[in-house]
Amino acid sequence: MNTTDFLTITSAICPDRVAIVFEGRKYSFAELSDRVNRLSNALLNMGVRKEDRVAILQVNCNQYVEAYFAAARIGAIFVPLNFRARQDELTHMLNNSEASILFAGERYLDMVTSMRPDLPAAKHFVSLDTRREGMLSYDELIASSSPEEVFSEIGDDDTTMLMYTAGTTGLPKGVPLTHNNFAIYVLENVTPVDPDIEETNILTVPLYHVAGIQAMLAAIYGGRTLAMMRQFEVKEWMETVEREKANRAMLVPTMLKRVIDDPDFAKRDLSSLKVITYGAASMPFEVIKKAIEVFPGVMFINAFGQTETASTITMLGPEDHVFTGRETEAEREKKLNRLANSIGRPMADIEIQIWDDEGKSLPPGEVGEIMARGPRVMSGYWKDADKTSRTLTPDGWLHTGDKGYIDEEGYIYLAGRGDDMIIRGGENISPEEVENVLHAHPKVADAALIGVPDPEWGSQPRAIIVLKEGETATAGEIIDFCRDKLSGFKRPRSVVFIDELPRTSTGKVQRKILREQHGQA
What we know:
By secondary structure, the protein is an alpha/beta fold. The protein has 16 helices and 25 strands. The mean pLDDT is about 95.
């Protein structure tokens, strides 16, 4: 089954059910399907054909969902762009994908206008919110296009989405994902649409993130109403849950902490929530422990995955979050340890092994790299055979870049990032990219970036600086230097000055030593 069938089936079974609630507007599944048909025909009229790339730069909105399904129905490849990325990163992604169409939200139109001369493959630019000279209007395309359903030859193994993920080189890497990559997970883990069962899913995770896409597709297939927020804001989130009687939510740890720590939390009726899924970054133990206490009766799920795996590959399930009070002291300690440190057990369609540096599988308890294999693992990076060969083995095993171990019961525990990637609030930060900026400071002789634990964001970037002889500088000076050179989430939040960076005999910075010496919160 390809993902376009999700909307076709649900709109046939429950046409009048609300599919999307967004900023006061409600769209039924029938209306959503109609708008998708119209946009599909508009794309065809613009010359978009199978395997052409269609990009979008916008926060969450109903048009985002429509644009995906419209592109998918004609066999085009959808390219969701990180709206937090810098202009040069966006230019790279658009040129690397050779996107011929770019949908853009109002807040990004000025930047898109300045990028246009550097985007030779882009033929049409579409303004999603307002009319803009030199751009097509989204609303006019919908209004003027045929509502006839578009039928295309789409294979389950055809690429439906090209998602970009940060790499250790700093440049985003393209991950092509097929209909099958998404459909396998949804079909095995989501109950299909039922005319007698209604649920509402509040969606705040950005749709450029694979977790957001997975949540959206699961909701469409399951006939769930999507209560969409442009971006997460804690009070609006609680108001939306209360107003829409939301049953399901996906939150990164930073979001969950803000919810349970908000002074208005106890005043809100959030009793409709039945399932909260969290992931995308490490969950501080004190946060999930408190969340379990203040959300009695809610099922918590820790989902771990990557863009390269079309999201979830391991899961710490609801049963691992429940304490009955009848556990022995040893059982309680084991459960607390899992809750604090484990990412759960592999999904049914995924194989997980722990490998040493020689590529040999390790027994339980021994730390090595977490390797994953299964039908949802990507086939390779977009236009990058070199990175593909270093990330995928010939027989399909994916190097996740994460260190960990497996216990005797099959639970997986993280033991650090193999590639030193810093994850702040679910966003990947490449140390090398930030270090390149730090090295450009006229007073800096040497620099490294490490992550330090943070109860709200999971991890925060800290710059370790060696100044040139005779120079003096403050932490504020170093941070300000990065302000207009890096996206906000990538900027160092603290600075430590030292005399010399520890390096290996081959000149590599020994970040493990830096984390041990300077990695305290």
